[in-house]
Amino acid sequence: MKRSLSVFLLLLAGYAQYAGAQQPVDSLNEQQRLGRQVLAQACGVCHLPPARNARTYGPSLNKGAGGGDEAVVREYILNGTPRMPSFQYFLQPAEIDAIVAYLKTVPVNK
Ligand code: HEC
Q1: What pLDDT sits at residue 6?
Q2: Residue 59 Cα, ligand 1 centroid: separation in angstroms?
Q3: pTM for the structure as a whole
Q4: Which of 40, 70, 73, 107 is most buried (most C-beta within 10 Å)?
Q5: How many domains does the chain have?
Q6: In this structure, is residue 73 part of a structural domain?
Q7: Which atom belonging to ligand 1 lies closest to the Cα atom of 66?
Q8: Is residue 36 a contact partner of residue 48, using CB atoms and an 8 Å limit?
């Protein structure tokens, strides 16, 4: 019984790997993927919900952030607000570009 379970799990793992190789996990390009990663690391604590329907400290971020204006989003990231830290000296310009590029791929209401 135990043995057949582990064989099943092995098969399952093999299938997951196969499926993963067949389909890209997402349609993001390299820059957008970097942006998603930096966002999760630097901004997630305030902007990403830890669980479904959990409330976050900051507003949820998507392509509508900053009223949909890229310059406004950069302004937030560079200068922060009284409630949000500035990232001017913490992030590289390329990382900020990446975040902006990634946010454009995030639909509103997600
Ligand atoms: C300490 C918590 C905190 C962190 C970390 C943080 N933010 Fe914020 N952010 C906020 C809060 C709070 C607001 C709402 C504005 C306010 O009340 O000052 C906000 C607002 C924003 C807005 C404007 C949202 C809108 O609806 O227009 C953007 C864009 C933004 N943050 C981007 C970022 C990015 C990108 C990062 C990471 C580099 C980040 N924030 C990190 C707390 C944070």
Answers
A1: 62
A2: 7
A3: 0.81
A4: 73
A5: 1
A6: yes
A7: 27
A8: no
pLDDT recorded at residue 1: 57
Q: What is the CATH number of the domain that holds 38?
A: 1.10.760.10
Q: Which two tokens stand for residue 88?
A: 């001017």
**33-78 pLDDT, tens digit each:** 999 999 999 999 999 988 888 888 999 999 999 999 999 999 999 9
- On the question of pLDDT at 19 being above 90, the answer is no
CA of 17 to the centre of ligand 1 (A): 36
Q: Is 89 in the pocket of ligand 1 (CB under 6 A)?
A: no
How many Å lie between the centroid of ligand 1 and the Cα of residue 49?
Answer: 13
* 87, pLDDT greater than 90: yes
| Dihedral, CA of residue 24, residue 28, residue 49 and residue 38, to nearest 10 | 120
DSSP 40: I
Residue 17, domain member (yes or no): no
- Identify whether 77 is part of a domain: yes
- Domain residues for the domain of 75 are 27-103
Q: What 8-state DSSP symbol labels residue 62? A: S
Main-chain dihedrals φ then ψ at residue 64, nearest 5 degrees: -90, 0
